[in-house]
């Protein structure tokens, strides 16, 4: 059990389970992706059987280190992995997982102003895919830590105004080029759509480090990321083993056209198909949408539809996992210790 | 008069049209020919506008047929009718407020050169038409939204003339025109007649009908009562054909009761608006009807709006029963101090057209028919029924939307609201515009009754006979200035017109007071 | 002169039935369609599923009630989605940063959205701007404020401060608290009270209040009058500015309630990006329900049905296994179809009454 | 009788200056503000940055030109964002699945959006529905179709089929192809031609065409007349239905062009979720530019400036390091502020001229 964070008080006594005529008391094996405080807490209570954690802090840290090397004309590895880790209710409180489970976060949206006088040797702009997911806050913290260690580097943190909008991110990169920073660290929303502005930046002499998901360009200085496909594979293995190799499951996809989660979903479905022939899908074509709220609505409909038949659920990112968790929880379908 | 070539005829037979339960037209037969002006008269709701709408393709008849120049004629839409040579001046103003005068007049028939608008030709054409209506100086680039109803009416007539139709339908074109403009319009009608055009003219002013028509058709309840040459009618016979009974006294007797003139109901001293009026002063006692004559654009409506608080006043002083009124006093407060206005712009301002008769009558007085904000439907229903009866409003039910009433009946609803407000001071801006003779008599009676109950009334009208028939005192407005107020007996129609057009009193030069 | 009042009773009766039945017909068609599509599974036509659908329409429904008033008054409010987000964030913040009890946080949340609505109203009235533009601006402003306050991320209400009733507010199955209350009633009534989720009762209660104030009070008449012809309303001494401000304020209040429901649904999370695009869904509900964006017309019952129809569609599509893309297309078709049907019905009902 | 309109020449002149200068003033204020905020670095007031901003406003600008026509005609088109997405997907699909050359794919893309616009127009005209509702429906329908066609994911145009000019379309620095063309002109003209990016030239050309058809042809007058008073237009024999359909069709065509620009900007990617919410940005540009959503009023130049203002803000915020949340708030304030300023100016200009 969790030692310092109080378990969610109302849940163990959640009346829904006892009142509901429909629920057959069978709880659902739930595997999700990413960690945010509510997810971690839910896992401590045993409501989630597996979470695949990335290491966003490392991602930020290594990206800044990579661009620093690149700016100093030092060699940079082409692909820098940051690892993907499975945590389960059993392993969650192991000390080696502590930094993964609750990575340090930075809440400021902007570190230094492009308008201010440049005081350090290098100024670098970091452009995430969005600004509201917890994931990016940890990336930010990692990047800030690296910058502090380097001493001669300042970072500007600037996310697109619309979550998950390729066109908006392209415009942002273009504006970044116009601000004449020394380098750029980018989590591209699309592997191809962003090639053009990135190569334009490189042509203007700004090295670019790509992180989080890939960009199809040979000119970039380096790529720092989780192996998303492998993340899906790990999730599938965890779910398959927890179900004992058979059962009916739901895959709630994230959002239309998102490359990193597509990879995770693919890793997941490939592994299920190859290694767990006894597992079949109740649904694998519904999308959660960009926010936890839309995920919640989608989950509600799915659960209402397949109530009583569901053995397992997988969600490929933070917001979809959170939305699904809320629904499973409110319907008394989560396992608990 | 040179004999025009009567090349065609429009023959209507057995035309019927129903609106829900209302039979607006039932089996109407009528014919009109080139070179002739046919006047159609009838009570409000008799079906006159409906008839013109059918001919101009805005609505379709339920049954019956039309022959145009011998060919069957069934216009599907206004475009079709226009192409067949039928143009109409609508009863309610119908212009595009964002377009210029020129664009409005030529709308739908712009002269073009290879797809481009030929602005020069277009302007010349407008100029010519407006000159014919004696408004050649009107700025063609002004957007129509800035014009007053009177000028808009001119623009609308000009538009109908520009279409060079064979049949021109005029639905109460004179209701917002000044005397002078009306005269000009009649001269134009005569000219067009001589060119072989067929003209249909609707008006509730029988003198106008007498002046301009060759034949007069009277319709009642959607049926033709009688159509005959002008010579075969006289005013009495027209009225009794319209109303179904003879009417003797159009105007009620003046007040017997004399109210003590200790305080003035309204007192204005050198009142000026942002543009019009300019330095208007007058005093009005309870129980008195003050008439205001003037040409369009003379600022009568502006004066009324300033008093009501719809427009701001710039300088001058105003008092209602010795309480002075300034711009800070809202319309609502003015209403509660006993002021009430009947707007001249019925559709734009006077009525909430999509709402019921009941709602329109009660908007200012709902608080009187409610407890703790909750409305008593029983009381408002009764009150509505009373007003429908008193003013003979022709309708299906008190809940009928006002937009489904005929023009004159809409006016009666607006009046009903004003009367039910029980204001002490009534400003009536063109109260009988579009109202039939029978109803006019009723309205005159009501106005006079209000006066004898001690109300002070300002009556703005462009129809001189009613000013002379109803008012105790009269003033004339010219270019935003109000002339001296004199008892009605000291005015003649000529002296009023002279003052209205020139701004100088005839009396000063000729000294021939009656 | 004959005052031929309703001399054709049959036509009137048909029109009345049609008028009431319009949006209902759409709802029934949708339900029948999906019941047929899911005839092999019996998960769609279940009490539980209907409770789910009903609870899901509460957020849109509450905000749509406010929007109905706004639309009847001839306006529009595009800022409701942002207001919902702002309310969730503020409510959550009060708990996280100031440790206020939840009930107080709720009040603060409501105050924020009510003032937001009032700001809309005042800007529209004082600046004399079109509601579309003012609320397009405040849409951005409220959203930005939510992001600013939430520092761009979700704000979690502290678990230790969460009362037990929080999860009962949007629960699909009635919670013990509300059962305690409903047990007080005699058997059949108590049973009904228990079957229908709390949030749905709340929605119905609010709808009733809005209906009464719209149809039975002078204020309601004024709202309709302003939507029908503002100049007339002014001439009749109606305080147009005040009434308008009150309408937008009430819309803010009801949207604030929707925001609290959203907060409860998210189990006490303040999310600055939640409910983006909600405004279009809300307007769609109002319009499907028979309101005219030109003002002067609208129906409370219709709006509720409009909100339901859209949730039935979404839920039905999932039950019938229809993918998201097709869902979007279906929703679009239904919006146009429902309003076209309504138009057609009205035309039929008043055939010959207009030109 | 004196026709005393505009009898004060000074007032008229002031009003004319203000009318032209209205949105311009807003633009200048925005530029000055950010120039001041970024005074320490000289990256904002650079030719390169202005080129960037100009290119970035092309997509919104093109669509906003179409929207201006729609708004002048008294309508609204909420489906433009979805249309842009649909165009990018269809264009990309034709290359990926049928290996068509890009120029042909472009034509198919334009055809799709043009028909989309036409469908809007026909539905509005034939069904007699409010544009808001019809396009709210097609917003969903087009978006759903884009997702369906793109199978819920991005569609990439095959690299081997990509012509070199694709990347030049939205390039901020003039590409060699366009330079080849501009070199043909004498020095000063050729220099200007080269400095201004291709996409911006395209936008200006389209704007000129739209302006001419709006102000110099009968069709343009009919569009204004319909927006000003539809009943009048009908009465004057204008084929209201045809004109409306043509307006929405043209809006579709121009939005299709915007879609192609979007496709080029994304380097040949068809994205079914791109440009969501674009409609509100486009409407904001039109309205900031001085159009009235009540119809009858609108300005082509104003719309272009409106589109620019919003990009200047976004870009300026990046340069000044202003966080997203504050950006949103600023944009909201600007929308309301610009329109309020315009209103105030108009009131000043026509002071005393009307009641
Ligand atoms: N659109 C409509 N819907 C319902 N009833 C209508 C409609 N238009 C007219 N009517 C009814 O048809 C009858 C005839 O109306 P019409 O407008 O033709 O009268 P009119 O003779 O022109 O009267 P007025 O002198 O007042 O203009 C009236 O009773 C009116 O209420
Ligand atoms: N020919 C014209 N062109 C444009 N505006 C005019 C013209 N004549 C007058 N006006 C404007 O009309 C306004 C005065 O009209 P107003 O409606 O007050 O006159 P009125 O005496 O009430 O006339 P009506 O008989 O129409 O009621 C003034 O603002 C004046 O500038
Ligand atoms: Mg009439
Ligand atoms: Mg007047």
**Helix content percent band of chain B:** 25-40%
**Number of helices, counting only DSSP H or I runs of 4 residues or more of chain A:** 11
So what's the oligomer here?
Answer: heterotetramer
Most strands sheet of chain B: 7 strands, mixed
Tell me the structural class of chain B.
alpha/beta
Distance between the termini of chain A: 8 Å
Order of strands, widest sheet of chain A: 4-2-1-12-10-11
Commentary on this structure:
The complex is a heterotetramer, with 1 copy of chain A (337 residues), 1 copy of chain B (514 residues) and 2 copies of chain C (355 residues). Chain A has a 6-stranded mixed beta sheet with strand order 4-2-1-12-10-11, with helices on both faces. In chain A, strands 3-9-8-7-5-6 form a 6-stranded parallel beta sheet, with helices on both faces. Chain A is built from 11 helices and 12 strands. In chain A, helix 6 runs parallel beside helix 7 and helix 8 crosses helix 9. With 337 residues, chain A is of the alpha/beta class. Chain A starts with 14 loop residues before the first helix and ends in a 7-residue tail after the last helix. Chain A has helices at 15-19, 37-44, 56-71, 98-101, 134-150, 166-178, 195-203, 228-242, 259-275, 292-306, 318-330; strands at residues 29-33, 50-54, 79-81, 84-87, 122-127, 153-157, 183-186, 208-211, 222-225, 247-253, 279-287, 312-314. Chain B is an alpha/beta fold. Chain B is 33% helix and 25% strand. In chain B, the strands form 6 sheets. In chain B, strands 15, 18, 21, 22, 23, 24 and 25 form a 7-stranded mixed beta sheet that branches. Chain C has a two-stranded antiparallel sheet with strand order 1-2. Bound molecules: adenosine-5'-triphosphate (ATP) (2 copies) and magnesium ion (2 copies). One magnesium ion binds at residues 48-49, 91, 171, 406-407 of chain B.
Outline the secondary-structure elements.
The complex is a heterotetramer, with one copy of chain A (337 residues), one copy of chain B (514 residues) and two copies of chain C (355 residues).
Chain A: H1 15-19, E1 29-33, H2 37-44, E2 50-54, H3 56-71, E3 79-81, E4 84-87, H4 98-101, E5 122-127, H5 134-150, E6 153-157, H6 166-178, E7 183-186, H7 195-203, E8 208-211, E9 222-225, H8 228-242, E10 247-253, H9 259-275, E11 279-287, H10 292-306, E12 312-314, H11 318-330
Parallel strand pairs in A: 1-2, 1-12, 3-9, 5-6, 5-7, 7-8, 8-9, 10-11, 10-12
Antiparallel strand pairs in A: 2-4
Helix pairs in contact in A: 3-5, 6-7, 8-9, 10-11
Chain B: E1 9-19, E2 22-33, E3 36-42, H1 48-55, E4 63-68, E5 71-72, H2 78-83, E6 86-89, H3 101-105, E7 112-113, E8 116-117, H4 119-132, H5 149-162, E9 167-171, H6 179-194, E10 198-202, H7 206-212, E11 215-220, E12 223-229, H8 235-243, E13 266-273, E14 280-284, E15 289-294, H9 300-308, E16 313-320, E17 323-324, H10 331-336, E18 339-342, H11 346-350, H12 357-362, E19 370-371, E20 374-375, H13 377-390, H14 407-420, E21 425-429, H15 437-452, E22 456-460, H16 464-470, E23 473-478, E24 481-482, E25 486-487, H17 493-502, H18 506-510
Parallel strand pairs in B: 3-10, 3-11, 6-9, 9-10, 15-22, 15-23, 18-21, 21-22
Antiparallel strand pairs in B: 1-2, 1-4, 4-5, 7-8, 11-12, 13-14, 13-16, 16-17, 19-20, 23-24, 23-25
Helix pairs in contact in B: 4-5
Chain C: H1 9-37, H2 47-72, H3 80-98, H4 102-127, H5 131-149, E1 155-156, H6 166-169, H7 176-182, H8 187-195, H9 198-215, H10 218-228, H11 230-235, H12 240-265, E2 269-270, H13 278-288, H14 300-319, H15 324-349
Antiparallel strand pairs in C: 1-2
Helix pairs in contact in C: 1-14, 1-15, 2-9, 2-12, 2-13, 2-14, 3-4, 3-5, 3-12, 4-5, 4-12, 9-10, 10-12, 13-14, 14-15
């Amino acid at each position: 059990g969790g030692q310092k964070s109080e378990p969610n008080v109302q849940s163990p006594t959640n009346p829904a389970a006892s009142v509901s005529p429909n629920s057959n008391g069978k709880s659902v094996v739930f595997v999700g992706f990413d960690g945010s405080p509510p997810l971690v807490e839910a896992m401590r209570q045993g409501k989630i059987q597996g979470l695949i954690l990335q290491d966003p802090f490392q991602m930020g840290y290594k990206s800044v280190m990579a661009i620093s090397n690149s700016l100093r004309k030092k060699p940079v590895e082409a692909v820098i992995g940051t690892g993907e880790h499975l945590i389960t209710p059993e392993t969650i409180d192991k000390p080696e997982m502590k930094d993964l489970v609750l990575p340090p976060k930075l809440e400021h949206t902007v570190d230094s102003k492009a308008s201010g006088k440049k005081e350090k040797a290098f100024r670098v702009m970091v452009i995430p895919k969005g600004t509201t997911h917890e994931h990016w806050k940890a990336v930010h913290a990692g990047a800030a830590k690296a910058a502090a260690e380097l001493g001669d580097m300042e970072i500007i943190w600037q996310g697109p105004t619309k979550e998950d909008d390729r066109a908006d991110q392209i415009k942002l990169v273009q504006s970044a080029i116009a601000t004449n920073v020394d380098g750029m660290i980018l989590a591209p929303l699309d592997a191809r759509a962003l090639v053009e502005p990135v190569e334009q930046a490189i042509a203007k002499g700004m090295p670019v480090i790509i992180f989080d998901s890939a960009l199809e360009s040979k000119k970039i200085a380096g790529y720092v990321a989780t192996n998303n496909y492998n993340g899906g594979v790990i999730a599938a293995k965890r779910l398959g083993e927890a179900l004992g190799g058979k059962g009916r499951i739901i895959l709630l996809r994230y959002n239309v056209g998102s490359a990193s989660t597509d990879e995770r979903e693919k890793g997941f479905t490939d592994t299920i198909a190859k290694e767990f022939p006894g597992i079949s899908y109740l649904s694998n074509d519904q999308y959660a949408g960009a926010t936890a709220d839309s995920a919640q609505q989608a989950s509600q409909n799915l659960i209402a539809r397949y109530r009583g038949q569901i053995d397992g659920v997988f969600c490929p990112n933070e917001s979809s996992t959170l939305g699904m968790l809320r629904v499973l929880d409110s319907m008394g379908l989560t396992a608990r210790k | 008069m040179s004999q025009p070539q009567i090349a065609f005829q429009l023959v209507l037979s057995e035309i019927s049209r129903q609106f829900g339960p209302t039979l607006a037209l039932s089996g109407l037969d009528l014919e009109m020919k080139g070179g002739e002006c046919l006047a159609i008269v009838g009570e409000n709701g008799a079906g006159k506008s409906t008839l013109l709408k059918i001919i101009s393709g805005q609505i379709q008849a339920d049954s019956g047929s039309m022959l145009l120049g011998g060919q069957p004629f069934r216009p599907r839409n206004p475009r079709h009718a226009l192409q067949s040579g039928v143009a109409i001046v609508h009863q309610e103003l119908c212009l595009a407020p964002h377009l210029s005068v020129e664009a409005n007049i030529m709308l739908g028939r712009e002269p073009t050169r290879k797809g481009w608008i030929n602005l020069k030709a277009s302007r010349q054409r407008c100029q010519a038409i407006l000159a014919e209506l004696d408004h050649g100086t009107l700025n063609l680039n002004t957007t129509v939204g800035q014009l007053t109803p009177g000028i808009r009416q001119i623009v609308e007539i000009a538009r109908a003339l520009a279409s060079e139709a064979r049949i021109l339908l005029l639905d109460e074109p004179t209701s917002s025109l000044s005397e002078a403009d009306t005269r000009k319009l009649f001269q134009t009608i005569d000219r067009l007649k001589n060119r072989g055009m067929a003209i249909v003219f609707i008006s509730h002013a029988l003198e106008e009908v007498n002046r301009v028509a060759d034949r007069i058709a009277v319709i009642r309840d959607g049926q033709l009562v009688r159509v005959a040459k002008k010579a075969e009618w006289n005013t009495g016979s027209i009225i009794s054909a319209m109303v179904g009974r003879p009417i003797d006294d159009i105007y009620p007797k003046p007040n017997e009761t004399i109210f003590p003139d200790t305080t003035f109901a309204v007192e204005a001293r050198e009142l000026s608006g942002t543009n019009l009026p300019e330095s208007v002063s007058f005093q009005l006692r309870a129980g008195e009807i003050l008439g205001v004559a003037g040409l369009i654009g003379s600022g009568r409506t502006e004066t009324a709006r300033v008093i009501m608080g719809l427009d701001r006043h710039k300088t001058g002083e105003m008092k209602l029963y010795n309480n002075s009124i300034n711009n800070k006093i809202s319309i609502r407060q003015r209403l509660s101090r006993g002021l009430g206005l009947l707007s001249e712009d019925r559709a734009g301002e006077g009525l909430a057209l999509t709402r019921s008769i009941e709602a329109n009558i009660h908007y200012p007085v709902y608080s009187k028919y409610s407890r703790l904000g909750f409305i008593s439907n029983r009381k408002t229903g009764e009150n509505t029924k009373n007003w429908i009866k008193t003013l003979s409003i022709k309708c299906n039910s008190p809940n009928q939307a006002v937009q489904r009433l005929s023009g004159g009946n809409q006016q009666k609803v607006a009046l009903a609201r004003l009367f039910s407000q029980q204001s002490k001071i009534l400003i009536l801006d063109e109260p009988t515009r579009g109202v039939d003779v029978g109803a006019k008599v009723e309205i005159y009676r009501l106005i006079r009754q209000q006066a004898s109950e001690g109300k002070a009334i300002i009556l703005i009208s462009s129809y001189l006979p009613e000013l002379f028939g109803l008012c105790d005192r009269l003033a004339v407005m010219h270019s935003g200035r109000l002339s001296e107020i004199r008892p009605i007996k000291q005015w003649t129609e000529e002296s009023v017109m002279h003052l209205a057009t020139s701004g100088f009193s005839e009396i000063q030069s000729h000294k021939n007071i009656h | 002169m004959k005052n031929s009042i309703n001399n054709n009773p049959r036509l009137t009766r048909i029109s009345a039935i049609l008028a009431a039945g319009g949006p209902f017909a759409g709802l029934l068609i949708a339900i029948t369609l999906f019941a047929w599509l899911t005839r092999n599974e019996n998960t769609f036509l279940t009490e539980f599923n209907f409770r789910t659908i009903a609870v899901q329409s509460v957020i849109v429904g509450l905000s749509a009630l406010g929007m109905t008033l706004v639309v009847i008054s001839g306006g529009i409010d595009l800022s409701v989605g942002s207001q919902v987000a702002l309310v969730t964030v503020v409510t959550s913040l009060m708990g996280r940063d100031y440790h206020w009890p939840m009930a107080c946080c709720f009040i603060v949340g409501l105050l924020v959205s009510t003032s937001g609505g009032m700001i809309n109203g005042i800007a529209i009235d004082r600046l004399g701007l079109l509601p579309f533009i003012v609320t397009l601006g405040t849409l951005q402003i409220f959203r930005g404020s939510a992001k600013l306050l939430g520092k761009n991320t979700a704000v979690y209400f502290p678990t230790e401060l969460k009362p037990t009733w929080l999860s009962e507010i949007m629960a699909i199955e009635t919670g013990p608290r509300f059962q305690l209350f409903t047990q007080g009633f005699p058997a059949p009534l108590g049973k009904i009270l228990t079957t229908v989720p709390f949030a749905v009762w709340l929605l119905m209660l609010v709808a009733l209040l809005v209906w009464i104030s719209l149809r039975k009070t002078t204020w309601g008449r004024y709202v309709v009058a302003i939507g029908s012809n503002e100049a007339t309303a002014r001439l009749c001494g109606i305080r147009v500015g005040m009434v308008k401000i009150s309408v937008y304020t009430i819309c803010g209040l009801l949207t604030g309630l929707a925001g609290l429901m959203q907060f409860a649904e998210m189990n006490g999370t303040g999310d600055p990006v939640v409910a983006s695009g909600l405004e279009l869904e809300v307007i769609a509900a109002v319009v499907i329900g028979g309101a005219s964006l030109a003002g002067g017309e609208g129906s409370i019952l219709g709006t509720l049905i409009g909100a339901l129809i859209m949730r039935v569609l979404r839920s039905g599509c999932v039950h019938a296994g229809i993918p998201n893309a097709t869902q979007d297309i279906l929703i679009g078709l239904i919006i146009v179809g429902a309003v076209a049907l309504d138009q057609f019905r009205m035309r039929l009902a008043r055939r010959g009454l207009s030109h």
